[in-house]
Amino acid sequence: MNAVKNSMNETAQEKNNSDVTPITILQKKHKPEKTFLRELIEFAIVAIVIVIPFRIFIAQPFVVNGASMDPTFKNGEYLIVDQLSYRFGTPERGSVLIFKYPKDPSKYFIKRVIGLPNETVNIKDGVVTIKNSTHKNGFVLTEPYITHTKSDSFQMTLDSNEYFVMGDNRAGSADSRVWGPLPTEDIIGRPLFRLFPVSNAGTLPGDERAAFLSK
């Protein structure tokens, strides 16, 4: 659970009358100390009004579990996931998604977008070819982030609300090749920050959209 700390600074408001009444000294009124119960109630209100909606609708933390996205994401890495962007836009090829596993929505997976809605994804000996309305004969994906390859063959045509996702560790990932397409409704968001390990921290980790902008 994230501990979100909200600090509230109290600024003492002092009335400066030195230009008019230099002999007047104004005393700051003593305020009664807050009780522990009152502070606890105020903290709870802040959590309900600010923290919880932030976690539900905007961003929340996830920890990578497993090696299906190796070497891009490793086991135990701590991510802050942007849940807002895809409420106003759609995932692009090369982006990384966090989503609910379609076969069991209580589980969350992290994979990379390979195929977009209405496209045909063809895999032959591990090489991915995409066919769509712009590239009717298909184009081959160049994927420099892959180090663990798998020489499998597979083909799937996506509906208008489906994505084809795969792990960067092609030899060790259960993804759309195994359980089918990812429905749009199961998408949670994208990694916005990688906080841990500190040596690998950064924004939009693993994002490869720029490599596929013309596709």
What does this structure look like?
With about 220 residues, the chain is of the alpha+beta class. It has one domain: Umud Fragment, subunit A. The strands form 2 sheets. Strands 1, 2, 3, 4, 9, 10, 11 and 12 form an 8-stranded antiparallel beta sheet that branches. The protein is elongated, with a radius of gyration of 25 Å. The N terminus is likely disordered.
Task: Draw up the topology in text.
Blueprint: H1 36-58, E1 59-63, E2 78-82, H2 85-88, E3 96-101, E4 104-115, E5 120-124, E6 127-131, E7 139-140, E8 154-157, E9 162-166, H3 176-179, E10 182-183, E11 187-196, E12 202-203
Antiparallel strand pairs: 1-2, 2-11, 3-4, 3-11, 4-9, 5-6, 5-8, 6-7, 9-10, 11-12
Q: What is the compact description of this entry?
A:
The chain has 215 residues and is an alpha+beta fold. It has helices at 36-58, 85-88, 176-179, and strands at 59-63, 78-82, 96-101, 104-115, 120-124, 127-131, 139-140, 154-157, 162-166, 182-183, 187-196, 202-203.
Features:
disordered N terminus, alpha+beta, single chain, Umud Fragment, subunit A, eight-stranded antiparallel beta sheet, about 220 residues, four-stranded antiparallel beta sheet
Mean pLDDT across all amino acids: 81
String of helices and strands: HEEHEEEEEEEHEEE
Oligomer: single chain
Domains, number: 1
Rg from C-alpha positions?
25 Å
